[in-house]
Amino acid sequence: MAALILALNPSIDAEWRVADVVWEEKNNVQSERRWAGGKGINVARWLKHLGGKPKLLLPLGGQSGQELTGYLRREKISALMVPLREATRVNVIVSTEAGRQIRFNPFGPTVAPQEWRKLLKNFTAQLASANLLVLSGSLPRGLPNNVYAGLIHLAHRSGVRTLLDCDGAPFVAALGAHPYLVKPNDHELALWWGKPLRNEAAIVRATQALSRKTRGWVFVSRGGQRSLLVNVAVGFQQFAAPQRVQPRNTVGAGDALLAAVARQIQLGKSPAEWLDRGLATGTQATQLVAGELPD
Known about the structure:
By secondary structure, this protein is of the alpha/beta class. Helices cover 38% and strands 25% of the residues.
């Protein structure tokens, strides 16, 4: 059985390498690199690398959509594309020689009602052959904030577990649909909690509250600090620290982590192994050029 990955707002990622960023001055771009990006595509890329069989469903439009389709075919990522009238977005990542990054993400195309109906029809058809659903990334314009909630309800009816990785209003709206696992980072958790998380005790309280809300698993990723996996209903709570490394890149590290968790769930591994393999894979991603995989 495959994991169905829905990427509703995919992108081309374009990395500009510069010596440094100087405000109100000309910044010369030393090089540019482009690849298929966006959270859902990153998850599919890593899940395939880890031995899974992801099926990617995504809307694409315009010249940039055609370009992205070519990248997916080159990587041999199984994907079903639904055409859009408006063009797929291009995210820009500016990387400096000192290793710092700044990202610019457009909102992306507007999905028209008839385009959404076609997406939903394809989603329902693909769900029948899936054993896991991954909803990852922002919603495009034209779709209401409760879209993920509705898709999770459909997955429940098909007996498919959902992993959710998004933020803001779509995240809040989806919680009542009870996804199997949610993966906020510490910043996203603090936004949901409504106040700063100044120490691990505060993180635990917020994570427990979120687990009670979803009635499921909550994986809080925290970069180089200890991450936390909690499920209040089954009495599970465990911290784990990633390996200490100097990050080369942070784009897609959380997506690699989620892909590893999804693979461990598919393999029937224990929650402790979700935590360990997720952190190991996320850390590995920080040592690679964005959009690339280990040999």
